[in-house]
Amino acid sequence: MMTYSDSMKMVVDTVTDTANSFIHMYPAYGIDVSVQTDFQKVDIVNSIPFGKVLYLDGDMQSTESDEFIYHEALVQPAMHLHRKPRNVLIIGGGEGATLREVLRHEVLKATMVDIDLQLIEICKKHLSQWHGGSFSDPRSVVISDDAFSYVKECKEKFDVIIVDLTDPSSDIASSAFSEEFYKSLRNLTTDGSICAFQIGNFWKKPQFHDILQLLRKSFGFAYPYKTYIPSFLAEWGFALASQKEIDMLNPFQILNTGKHYNRTTHSSMFAVSTF
């Protein structure tokens, strides 16, 4: 949970889970935005070590200094392991950075579904480095809806689906980390589709393991991977899921698309312990 001391010009970020807790303190110039939307509290901190920092309900989401690591790790493996991604669905991703990464490819349409339009408008105005103008791309379709409801009712099929929601412990995203949600997602895929998920701290093993097992049960195949994100002070966990087996270490041509993702980091992210 984040608090800001104006007198000390310091952010105190208390991180607590069932395994451990720690306090992350760093200097800051102040808070640029502090708004309660219809769904969550949005804060944008102007920090010294990380630049701008986005918090939702007091939890750090991404920072100006290393958001590219998180978003490239979430999006690029799935996009490169699919032979020809043309129709992409993004669940969540209000900052627009996930959309930005998808649009680096020759997609025909990228549909982004986020329940909080107020958050999107805030990010459009204050986090231009994150979205990079992606909301204005003619291939982008932004829909304001609850993720669970949209997925359950949608009849479209997608080549790649990226699920970029807040942690499973958050109230706003809890229904989207369930077997029912994953099976509804599977209905939007073909046997060649690939889905990518952020799962949270890689070393929260019970949580990570349980979600991975749900993905395997729902899709047939699921593959964990991870990368270190400095501002999170943690290795962050992700997973890919598909109806058929994927050759994880042999992606199709890797484009020179970003600062973090390349052929070497692709291979290293999938070097994980057995789950």
CATH topology grouping of the largest domain: Rossmann fold
Count of helix runs: 8
Number of domains: 2
Which spans have pLDDT < 50 for at least 5 consecutive residues?
none
How many strands, which pairing sense, and closed or not: the largest β-sheet? 7 strands, mixed
Average pLDDT, all residues: 91
What overall form do the CA principal axes indicate? globular
Provide the gyration radius in Å: 18 Å
Order of helices and strands: EEEEEEHEHEHHEHEHEHEEH
Strand content: 35-45%
Structural class: alpha/beta
The name of the CATH architecture of the largest domain is: 3-Layer(aba) Sandwich
Task: Tell how many strands the DSSP assignment holds.
Answer: 13
Q: What is the end-to-end distance?
A: 30 Å
| Residue share in helix | 25-40%
Could you name the CATH class of the largest domain?
Answer: Alpha Beta
Q: What is the strand arrangement across the widest sheet?
A: 9-8-7-10-11-13-12
| The CATH fourth-level homologous superfamily of the largest domain | Vaccinia Virus protein VP39
